[in-house]
Design brief:
It is a single chain. The chain has 4 helices and no strands. It has 74 residues and is mostly helical.
Length: 74
């Protein structure tokens, strides 16, 4: 287990001593992250649909390459 995750588990165990509440909290947290991921995936898909494939190609390039390309176009 990564050190950060271990510290987070220890913090949860210290703050929430009841195992049933820990389970409920962690289930809720996992659901929150699933909803958040689905939301941002949908936003990303909408951005691709609106701007077309050139936007997603520019996003894959390092920032300095994308900046250089836009400077040449002006």
């Amino acid at each position: 287990m990564p050190p950060r995750a271990k510290r987070e588990w220890q913090l949860i165990a210290r703050r929430i001593p009841d195992p049933a509440f820990q389970k409920s909290f962690l289930t809720s947290l996992a659901q929150h992250f699933r909803v958040e991921r689905a939301y941002y995936d949908a936003v990303w898909q909408e951005m691709q649909d609106v701007t077309g494939p050139s936007f997603s190609q520019a996003a894959k390039r390092p920032a300095n390459q994308a900046d250089q390309r836009s400077c040449r176009a002006t």
